[in-house]
Amino acid sequence: MDMQLEKVGVVPVVVLENAADAVPLAKALLRGGLSIIEVTLRTEAALEGISRIAADVPDVFIGVGTALTPDQVGLAKAAGAKFIVSPGLYEPVVAASQDAGLPVFPGIATASEAQRAWNMGLRTLKFFPAGQAGGVPMLKALGSVFRGIKFMPTGGVSAANLSDYLSLPSVAACGGSWLTPADAISKGDFGHITKLAEEAVAIVSSVRNG
User: Fold this and answer.
1) Which domains does the chain have, with CATH numbers?
2) What 3-state DSSP class applies to 53?
3) Which of 27, 38, 77, 150 is catalytic?
4) What is the pTM (predicted TM-score) of this model?
């Protein structure tokens, strides 16, 4: 999956309040060129939304975010999730994901956490919350030390600073909630979401393809 992340460059971070929005939202992002989606477990609609996307939009590589417990990993896999993202580095969640055969991207914010993750065999990590944890300068510092690790900065990433993060060789992709604004979802304005996805894809292309 690491190669898929680098190819796409951006992973929309989705908060679903209504499972009925899941499929049109996934299709809107896919039309915009984004084929990897993270649905966070912050709402009761999340697991059903993941299940709907897995069944109805097979071209989307759907994963779960905000996984806090091993039980949630099992529920996510049963719903059809193909990867696991968590806000922090919690070994039981990592182990449960690996036992389930799912790629897992735990969040780290310090060198100590990155070193622990490296010693657990992990080579792609979420950097969270990116803006508050030092942003681009911090990732430059971490990347210079942990040269075998790729990062997925999330939290405070937007269209305005996306190119700054993607220009770092240590960054595989960026996670972002700006691509799926709550007001657009609630209004059913999926055309706007497609436009945001297209803009992000264009930024990725300009940075990585020159």
Assistant:
1) 2-202 (3.20.20.70)
2) helix
3) 38
4) 0.97
